[in-house]
Specification:
By secondary structure, the protein is mainly α. Helices cover 60% and strands 6% of the residues.
Length: 336
């Protein structure tokens, strides 16, 4: 028989174990409920993040789609432009081919006509000898002007300026400062020109007036001299050239050659840019070749012109000179 004190202890132990079992069950229920709550909360948060991610992905997809559409549109426009350029190029090429064919036909016809006409005109005019001289009635005045510059072959700028402009050079009051812009022309380029026009300008006067240089013809005459003067003044004002670099002498090349001869001048370099008509270049070369100093240079451009090439080669062969060519530029040197 168990002692009396043991029975209460056993009873207390049984109660403790039972209570512990109940607490364990309750704790398991609480843990399960808490785990469910946490799982629900995590699922909700995950859903929210997933929803936000899907929204961002959708926005990015729309942005990329817009970029792709824009790229496709731009590519289509470029392709259209390329097709247009190809069409324009083909059209221009075809037009150029027609122009070349027409030019060849015209050139062949002109050469044939020129040869026939040349043979016919030879009966009346065959320039072979050109002499540079001037009339005896000008001898006294020429001697007076030569004495004015001391009989030197190379006068100073001021001396030559006074002879041509007929008044002393003044740095603050000269032709570049005082020349009026009579036709309101805007300077466009630097050029050297005879300023009176040539056969081409006369034959194609309508093209010169309306297409090439509108305003070139005014009151029935060329305004190129005024354009040249305004161009030079603009270059001087911009400091690209000095006021002593150029003296305009508005006369024909023949008159200029005789003027230099009468003054006793012997330039070292002469650049010829004539109207390129048959015998004209030959005449100018003959005049200025006799004018330049020994060792002097005579040159010009447009050797691609038949008339220019013929006259230059003709003169070089006549005097047994070496002809130097650089592209369309020709050059002859006078022996020392």
């Amino acid at each position: 028989m168990l002692p009396k004190v043991v029975i209460p202890l056993i009873a207390a132990l049984v109660i403790f174990v039972a209570t512990l079992g109940l607490l364990t069950q309750r704790w398991a229920v609480v843990v399960h409920e808490k785990a469910g709550e946490l799982a629900d909360q995590h699922t909700k948060q995950s859903g929210q993040r997933l929803s936000a991610g899907l929204g961002s992905l959708q926005s990015e997809t729309q942005r990329l789609q817009a970029l792709l559409d824009a790229e496709r549109k731009a590519k289509a426009e470029v392709q259209q432009q390329l097709l247009k350029l190809q069409h324009d190029y083909s059209t221009a090429t075809a037009a150029w081919a027609v122009t070349q064919a027409s030019w060849k036909t015209w050139t062949d016809s002109y050469n044939k006509w020129s040869k026939t006409e040349s043979e016919r005109l030879t009966q009346f005019c065959a320039i072979s000898e050109i002499g540079l001289d001037y009339d005896a009635r000008f001898f006294p005045k020429a001697a007076e002007l030569r004495a004015k510059i001391g009989g030197r072959h190379y006068p100073t700028f001021e001396e030559l300026y006074e002879l041509v402009v007929n008044k002393p050079y003044d740095a603050k009051a000269n032709i570049w400062h005082e020349f009026p812009n009579a036709y309101n022309q805007v300077p466009s380029f630097v050029c050297v020109d005879p300023w009176t026009g040539d056969l081409g300008m006369l034959l194609f006067r309508d093209d010169w007036q309306k297409k090439l240089t509108p305003g070139e013809i005014s009151e029935g005459r060329s305004t190129s001299y005024f354009q040249f003067m305004n161009n030079m003044k603009s270059q001087i004002d911009e400091g690209k050239i000095g006021p002593k670099h150029i003296i305009p002498l508005a006369v024909t090349s023949t008159v200029a050659a005789r003027y230099f001869l009468s003054l006793g001048l012997t330039p070292d370099v002469v650049y010829l840019d004539s109207a390129h008509e048959k015998d004209e270049t030959f005449t100018e070369i003959s005049l200025f070749y006799s004018l330049i100093a020994p060792g002097g240079i005579l040159y010009g451009d447009d050797f691609s012109w038949d008339s220019v090439a013929t006259d230059v080669k003709r003169f070089a062969e006549k005097l047994h000179l070496e002809l130097h060519l650089q592209g369309a530029t020709w050059m002859l040197q006078k022996p020392h």
